[in-house]
Amino acid sequence: MKRNIRGMTLAAMLLSASASVHAGDQEYADAEQASQAFVGDLGVQQVAHNSTHVGNLSSYSPVTVGDMQLGSTVSQAGCTSCDSFSCDGGCDSSCDSRFGSGKRFGRLLNLCDKDGWIRAEGMIMFMEARTAPALVTTADPTEFPVLPDPNNGAGSGATTQVVFGEELDGGVSGGTRFDVGRYLSDNFGIGGRFMWLSENGDDFSASGNGTGDSIGRPFFQIPLAAPGTASESALIVNQFSTNPGINSQRGTVNASFSTDLLSAEAYARMMYCKNKSSRVELIGGYSFFRVDDNVSISSRTTDVVTNTFLADYSDFDTQNEFHGGQIGYESLVSRGAWTVRMLTKVHMGNMSRTVTNYARTDVGVDTTITNTYNSSLLVDENQGTEEESDFTFIPELNLTLGYRFRDHVSFTVGYNFLYFDKVALAGEQINRNVDGTDGPRNIDPADFDFDIVDGSLWVQGISLGTTIDY
Fold it and tell me: Which residues, if any, are the signal sequence (predicted)?
């Protein structure tokens, strides 16, 4: 009995001494808070978290009396804050009691109890080169700017070069992408994403005053009366003539192509599996894509002697709209301030394609137009608007590396890839075969009918951005 009394007395003295030391250091804000700390009281940790102790919490050492430990671990060795995802337990231990709810989704950027995200990225993207027939050619002076054709005799088109057409490469395009979302529970969240790429294309122009290199617009002549004699030909834009019976021609030609892309998504994400430093989530939702493509070409040729002119304009415009669903997964691995994220999805749905071909030809003298026709060198019966749709897939891959340079904010750099199948591209709708009818003509709108040619298009590039957790 005396030993027990001595033990209790010793414990009371130790507690009294500890409280006195803390009181001398002004670690208790008032007597009421100080009275909350006693042996076995689980509220000791809460007192510490409420900053009733002054000084570095990580230096607080539990006091053991017998088999009982006063308080619990306030901060783990080497951890300076609950944001340290690399600490043992991460957001599953001390942060839970500190923040109450103990939500884990702040792990996305090594933060505790953060269940929303905003991602903004600038994109530098490359599009696959589109294809089209040879639309503008040049040749040496006095040479006919026709494409090489054995049917025209040896050496025909030997100096001809294609200066617009065949491969339409728009180079680099800039764009933006935004991703905003929020977790509604520990295992389920919703979000939305929007992407826009600026116009990917180029312009071309060439002109002459009746001298210099020959400029032409090539086509393939198919005489109706003798289809077996089909051969390459060209509409002259500029050429110097040495033949007495043929006048020189002067003129200009302008051409352009462009492709625009935008998308919008609404999705949900659900936890599939996770551990201390990685996670995998399943993603599903709605997807919308739109790809617009255009090729246009116009020329004006004037006879240098008679001043008669022929102005020819052709425009090919396509719109591709995709509505469907998406399914995929996103995996994330974190090491300290670094994160690696991989998003793999496939969009499945209906691709609606609309193709509109427009043509106009003006004939006149000097500045006076004497006749106008709704056809052109490249557009005869195959003009107007056609629509069709098919079921298709759009695979997508995003790989992103992020660095958290401060709480809540990370810098990211990533690689992005998209592939579109069954899209109508303007250059592939151009048919350079001319049926041999002499001169431009008016087309009855009832004859507007043509087949849509399907193609494919990939887009890839890098993104630089910022991620904010809230």
Answer: 1-23
